[in-house]
Design a protein that fits this description.
- This protein is of the alpha+beta class.
- The strands form four sheets. A five-stranded antiparallel β-sheet has the order 2-1-5-4-3.
- The mean pLDDT is 78.
- The protein folds into four domains: 108 residues, no CATH class; 90 residues, Beta-Lactamase; 68 residues; 146 residues, Heat Shock Protein 90, CATH 3.30.565.
- A hairpin with a 2-residue loop joins strand 6 and strand 7.
- It is elongated and about 165 Å long.
- This is histidine kinase.
- Keywords: ATP-binding, Kinase, Membrane, Nucleotide-binding, Transferase, Transmembrane, Transmembrane helix, Two-component regulatory system.
Length: 451
């Protein structure tokens, strides 16, 4: 409405000036010089008035935009002027100023909201530009680094030289594990990086997380589970020995008197021999159990070398071919590229993969159906990591058991020791890699070795 009224005002003024200009020309051509001069003077005043009117409008609009640019929310144009065009323009500028200020307030509130979330987050956040300036550092990051004012990456040298080198060399999508020591404790940190773009500026978002609590919690949980298994296995061996010892001791007792060897009958001697045999067997089982534990804790350091995955897989195929049930297995090998290699201890990798393949054969054999086992080697997306998958279409692993299969001595097999999977995971850990599992009941189970 304001622009329309202003438009009409200017059009009327221009038409009026045009009419006067024609009048001056007409009077001049008809020799009415005096009237032409007076009218020309009036024309001049009208032109000057139009120019001043337009300049006043331009100055007000320019003043308005300058105020907006300088974030001046106190600007207000009077609306009690008699000129309707000016009054409408003032109303429009005031309304536009109100809307702009409202948007700014909402943006500030939203910015404050997100800033509060970042400040209260249990994870540390840093944003770096290409020159190493820290544009944002939340409270958690400052607390982890014990530094109140982080403005440049060079300040991290004062915190920890190793930490500074790690963060300064971070590339997009990197994930690193490090530790820093302060006055109170040593803190384990995971550090991840992600590229972001704000406006035309390329930044790197660095996410820092203290994993001490998670490590302590997982360690405690693992110890509890291990103690449960150890207690269960040891009690299974010791309880019969204790019971039999009491039974055998009663053979030599008769109404509070001790029997002599000559007082033993044939049945007593037979029971004594059977009892001692059982004690011997239980003792052997207990020794075997302890030896299994020693095996788990005495794995030699990997002697790494470059290994062709194709050669490794073929060896696994040959070694597992003697397993019962292999004849009903379709054994498939899939390698992303013919020259895909891993840097590992070959003997230990054969031990890990052979154990996983044997488990798969045994689980499929129990179902009585023909099965498929796949050995897959590939490069992980957006990473230099190599992954080996051992996949089978067996019965799968239930969710209740899935989170326990890597616990030492935990087994669902009648003749199993519960060492294989925990040993395999420990070997992968010694290689600086991981062993994980994913299973869908009745469809498939997949073990993944990430190097």
């Amino acid at each position: 409405m304001a622009s329309k009224n202003l438009y009409y005002n200017i059009i009327i003024r221009v038409l009026f000036i045009t009419a006067i200009a024609f009048g001056v020309a007409y009077l001049g051509l008809n020799k009415h010089i005096d009237y032409a001069i007076y009218l020309a003077i009036f024309l001049t005043f009208q032109v000057v008035g139009l120019i001043n009117f337009i300049n006043r409008m331009n100055k007000k609009i320019a003043f308005f935009f300058n105020a907006v640019e300088n974030d001046d929310s106190t600007i207000h144009f009077p609306i009690d002027t008699k000129n309707k065009s000016v009054r409408d323009l003032h109303k429009s500028l005031n309304r536009l100023n109100f809307l702009i200020q409202k948007i700014k307030i909402e943006n500030r509130q939203q910015e404050h909201y997100y800033h509060s979330i970042l400040e209260q987050a249990a994870v540390g956040f840093l944003t770096l530009n290409e020159k190493g300036h820290i544009l944002l550092a939340n409270k958690t990051a400052k607390k982890l680094f014990n530094y109140d004012s982080l403005t440049h990456i060079q300040q991290l040298k004062r915190v920890d030289e190793k930490l500074f080198k790690l963060i300064s060399q971070l590339k997009p999508f990197d994930q690193k594990l490090t530790s820093i020591t302060n006055e109170r404790e040593t803190v384990q940190l995971t550090i991840r990086s992600k590229p972001i773009t704000v406006g035309n500026e390329n930044l790197i978002l660095i996410i820092i997380q203290n994993i001490n609590y998670e490590l302590d919690e997982n360690e405690t949980d693992s110890w509890i589970k291990l103690f449960r298994v150890l207690t269960h296995e040891i009690m299974n061996s010791i309880a019969p020995i204790t019971s039999l010892s009491e039974t055998l001791s009663h053979i030599f007792e008769n109404e509070n008197t001790k029997k002599t060897p000559s007082g033993l009958n044939e049945t007593d001697v037979s029971n004594l021999i059977k009892g001692l045999d059982i004690i011997k067997e239980q003792g052997k089982d207990l020794i075997t159990f302890v030896e299994s534990y020693r095996t788990l804790t005495k794995i030699s350091k990997p002697e790494k070398e470059i290994i062709s995955t194709a050669t490794l897989f073929n060896k696994i195929r040959i070694l597992s071919s003697q397993e019962v049930g292999f004849q009903k297995i379709k054994f498939e090998i899939a390698i992303q590229s013919n020259n895909l290699e891993i840097y590992a201890d070959e003997k230990q990798m054969i031990q890990v993969l052979l154990n996983l393949v044997k488990n798969a054969i045994q689980s499929i054999h129990k179902t009585g159906k023909e099965g498929i086992i796949k050995l897959i080697a590939e490069k992980e997306k957006n990473s230099y990591n190599t992954i080996i998958h051992v996949v089978d279409n067996g019965p799968g692993i239930s969710p209740e058991i899935l989170n326990q299969i890597f616990i030492p001595f935990f087994t669902t097999k009648e003749d199993g020791t519960g060492i294989g999977l925990s040993l395999s995971k420990h070997i992968m850990r010694l290689h600086g890699g991981t062993l994980s599992v994913n299973s869908i009941i009745g469809k498939k189970t997949s073990f993944s070795l990430r190097f």
